[in-house]
Design a protein that fits this description.
TIM Barrel; 2 domains; nine-stranded mixed sheet; Alpha-Beta Plaits; 12 helices; alpha/beta
Length: 329
């Protein structure tokens, strides 16, 4: 089985043409600016909206692990009685009519999904679902006409698809190849080289993330060093793979003249030949997901490079001989 978080149809930012992007669950990196935090963990995870909770207590009553509590306005546990309908410890409702707020202990939650079936407001969902290869293939082939008319196809993204169940991933990739569907691999590069070798016969291109050349900075902002990432990039290029470099840029972090200069120098030194270079200015569209997962977002002070800085970085790549430099996906 393959564990995914979502399918994004009619995607125009994950490779050429109109594509369907499959977001696989699990990534070895924990990028500080990640806008898909629900894809980081390899297991299923709960997302909720505690700020919208009406305090009905349905989730409290059905949780088999006792992971959900109903809290009153002071933050105290209202207990089982409040879950049955009482708003406060004395059984009265709060002034705003809410009977409390459901809070989930993430250490106890098994992400079984039972609470999602009983929340009347639809405020709870599970990130991560299993799909068989045949089931997923059937869904992907539904948009064949859009792929053919636009020169598009399917993109495996994540998370990190090459860090997952490779037997099933290769099975799906081979099935797409047999159907004549273009396949792109969106990768952070942090995966065993043998996984890249296994997918190479089926991949038409790699959307390869390059975040830093500096090892310590990479480890500081992603939780992992970049020796294997840079090594895999070099080996892919040596194999003649089609590579579109994708560089997320955070102002003052890796969006600096020094880091861009280090990137161009490294690519030239290692004779790495990407087809395109995509500069991706930072955005915070995924910030709200963190609170839904009970996590703190560490990128509140991040910002994108200015228009002038982006133009300068584009020119730095072009001056180094990389002609196809684009802004955005």
């Amino acid at each position: 089985m393959l564990r995914i978080t979502s399918l994004q149809k009619y995607s125009i930012h994950d490779g050429d043409g109109i594509r369907t992007t499959v977001f696989f669950k699990g990534c070895p990196l924990k990028c500080a600016w990640c806008h898909n935090p629900e894809t980081q963990g390899f297991g299923k995870e709960l997302l909720d909206h505690p700020e919208k909770c009406t305090g009905c207590g349905a989730c409290v009553k059905v949780c088999p692990k006792g992971a959900v509590s109903l809290l009153n306005k002071a933050g105290a546990d209202d207990g089982a009685e409040s879950a049955a309908g009482a708003g406060t410890a004395d059984g009265s409702a709060h002034e705003d009519g809410k009977t409390g707020t459901a809070e989930t202990d993430r250490n106890l939650c098994a992400a079984c999904g039972k609470c999602t079936l009983f929340c009347p407001e639809g405020l709870r969902e599970i990130a991560g679902r299993e799909m068989a290869v045949k089931e997923l293939l059937k869904e992907l082939l539904k948009d064949r006409i859009f792929y053919e008319d636009s020169g598009g196809g399917v993109t495996f993204s994540g998370g990190e698809v090459l860090a997952g169940n490779m037997k099933e991933v290769i099975s799906l990739a081979a099935a797409l190849k047999k159907e004549g569907i273009s396949l792109y691999i969106d990768t952070c590069g942090e995966a065993p080289w043998e996984n890249f070798e296994a997918i190479l016969p089926y991949a038409d291109a790699f959307l390869y993330d390059l975040k830093f050349v500096d090892f310590e900075k990479h480890r500081q902002y992603t939780g992992v060093g970049n020796f294997r990432i840079l090594g895999n990039l070099k080996r892919l290029s040596d194999c003649g793979a089609v590579i579109d470099l994708r560089i997320p840029l955070v102002r003052g972090v890796n969006g600096t003249k020094e880091e861009i200069g280090a990137m161009t120098a490294y690519l030239l030194e290692q004779k790495i030949c990407p087809r395109r270079v995509h500069l991706l200015p930072y955005h915070n569209t995924g910030m709200a997901k963190y609170s839904r997962m009970g996590r703190k977002y560490d990128g509140e002070d991040f910002s994108p490079p200015t228009e002038e800085e982006l133009t300068e970085y584009e020119e730095m790549f072009r001056a180094a001989g990389f002609r196809d430099v684009r802004r955005g996906g």
